[in-house]
Amino acid sequence: xxxxxxxxxxxxxxxxxxxxxxxxxxxxxxxxxxxxxxxxxxxxxxxxxxxxxxxxxxxxxxxxxxxxxxxxxxxxxxxxxxxxxxxxxxxxxxxxxxxxxxxxxxxxxxxxxxxxxxxxxxxxxxxxxxxxxxxxxxxxxxxxxxxxxxxxxxxxxxxxxxxxxxxxxxxxxxxxxxxxxxxxxxxxxxxxxxxxxxxxxxxxxxxxxxxxxxxxxxxxxxxxxxxxxxxxxxxxxxxxxxxxxxxxxxxxx
Length: 253
Prior knowledge:
This protein is mainly α. The protein folds into two domains: 131 residues, no CATH class; 121 residues, no CATH class. The chain has 14 helices and no strands. It is globular, with a radius of gyration of 19 Å.
């Protein structure tokens, strides 16, 4: 599960492509040696390097830093970088990944792709984003912290062979809910309420992936688990999901 790294794309475009490179390399490593040789695709990290090697200096800066965009011009620049990267990855994945892995790959970047489509093409959304840009600056470190915790939870659960698929799915959904509220709680503490609500809606867009398409109907259960686990802190998603693990055992027939 590489969703967490993709979510941080609203802060730092380059991290999206680093995360995708990680996912693609893992996929290639799982192919039979003969197939990998026939494809002659090479590592996705090399593909990323090739994709961006001739970027103008001002765009290369956007790829490499974590600066929050604060103007229309910076939105345009970030979108140019993202769109170029997605074209490279689309071409690479169509050429090098088998159907099952291709679908997995597409699902993992679905949220980021949808967000950037709106971020780059919807002028009303751009105006709203720029209206709240100071809040995104204030919560940048917390956003990354929430994302890292979320990613770690998903990775741990994915490799936990002691629980069934239904338990894992509910925990994934509640981890997602905790992630979104982690962003909101940080923003609510540091920003105005309307900015915190916009930040949470942005997090929801970024986490709107096909893996989680049936999660929304579980939000009441997840909200209850969050209340059980709540500690006096604005950002404790791990505690929330530990609370879910307690709740899961208490409601199991």
